[in-house]
Amino acid sequence: MTENDRLELRNISKSFGEVHSLRNINFRVGRNEVVGLLGDNGAGKSTLIKIITGYHQPSSGELYFNGQRVDHLTVPRARELGVETVYQERALADQQSLWRNIFIGRELTTRFGFLDVKKMRAETDRLMRGELGFTSTAVTPDSSIKGFSGGEKQGVAIVRALYFHAEIIILDEPTMGLALSETRKLLNFVREIKTAGKSCIFIDHNVFHVYDVADRIVLLDRGTVAGEFRKADLSLNELLDKMQHVAETGSL
Amino acid sequence: MASNTTPMPANTGFDLGRFLRRNGLQVGIFSVMLLLWVIYFVSTPAFRQGNIYTALMSTVPYWGIVALPLTMLVIGREMDLSFPSIMAMSVTTFVGVNLATGQPLLAFAACLLTGFAVGLINGLIVVYIGIPSLIATIGTQFFWSGMVQVITNGRSFPLNELRGTAFRDILVGNLFGFFPMQMIWMILVAVGVWFLLNRHRFGAHVYLIGDNENTARLMGVPVNRTRVLMFAIVGVAAAFGGLLNAIQISNFFTNLGDGYLLIGLAAVFLGGTSVFGGVGTVFGTFIGAFIIASIQPAVVAIGWAGFTTEVIYGLIIVLSVAMHTILRARIR
Q1: In which residue ranges of chain A is pLDDT below 50?
Q2: Cβ neighbours of B115 (radius 10 Å)
Q3: If you placed Cys at B257, which of A94, B87, B153, B163 could pair as Cys (CB 3.0 to 4.6 Å)?
Q4: CATH number corresponding to B25-36+46-330
Q5: Residue B2 has what pLDDT?
Q6: Is B3 near chain A, with CB under 8 Å?
């Protein structure tokens, strides 16, 4: 590996009881790089992501952040290391207010753990008017998010990831349920991540979206890395052929 | 929704619409209380005298002090059916330590510690063994009330020697001769729980866990620790409420806590806390407790048969929970 990798996974395996979800995964994310992760349902994409975010502990293998080995990664530790994730399931609390959702698990506090509600409301208000683009006065930082549209909820999840100065942003099926214009906005957002010098892991069912924004594409199949390509070396058609081949035979 | 289309007034001064949207449930329960009170006041002379209020303020805190943190537990999507036996077990400790050392303050500390420990055990069983709290706490309710009988041999213990002590006066004395100290304690507990729930990270986590546990875990909320602590806090409150009760009547009966379970829960749900977690207020439970407690004296004062009490309990609980459900669907 190079010291310059933001993240490297070495020989990571994960089993749940008898089920081997991941086997000897080697995976890296460079600085300022968008890595597309492709694979069928059950290929292990979500498990891989949840190991990087500290939600699951790997059964074996090693994790490195910026060249430093990290054992016993937890969710708070991963967030400290700059990993922010926009989960497929959004990871929002529907009945809670917008400001509570923005600051889940990272509430701004004063001494003794008391909440700085005023500041969190103000920050949420600022994010709403800026990044989230809410203009309606009916939506306030105290609005609960259960009435939001899919795109608005996605916006909340993304803005939340950005607020905390992420170094690696993981997007897990972010275009699911989004309208066309919202999807275009999202893909632009991924390009901005790169422009801003951050790294990104982008997972999507839609190969076209992945090919569009990724610098490098990693193909997962049944818990192993079936292939890895730089976009520059591969046309979209070649990628589609390879994916078809992997799906049929399990190898390249 | 209408509120989306009506133009909102500028953010200056008091904004009724926003206040109602933020606090709809509390306003709802408060209105119910006012309405009932007007009915009582008009229909019976008893409610036009002070005694009944002193009586309510003296007896509600025993279990009301538990219902307040119980609200937090229910918001966190858990339940504790064992708090009556925690009351009895903790006061058993109080009596034991007080008899052994003659130091009520030390006994007081031991009492609260017992409540904390028993609550903690509930939490550990629920969180780390994974038994649903509804079932786990049925078990611990039997276990601890049985333990109390075993330890005490079923005897009761008079606490007369505490009469006239500052210790007793501070806990259950009468301020100005008519205002029970336990009411002050209940208000203090309510303020404390409110701060914990609404202005502390702990409470923020409780709401998140109750709303969506998976989200809380994904976002790194310390789910297990928070859930265990919720049970322990209910335990401490049960110890305190139980002790106030025993000291007020200057006797510890081993069935202390009997009859408090259902009214305690009723106060929580009447107050608008959702059975499904994630929603609820301390204020609602506070008001709910007094509504529940007022029904029986009101029924008696109006001159209906005492049996009617439970019919009215039932009606009020079902109606108010229905009201909350409907309001919640509308207010956002």
Answers
A1: 1
A2: 30
A3: B87
A4: 1.10.3470
A5: 37
A6: yes
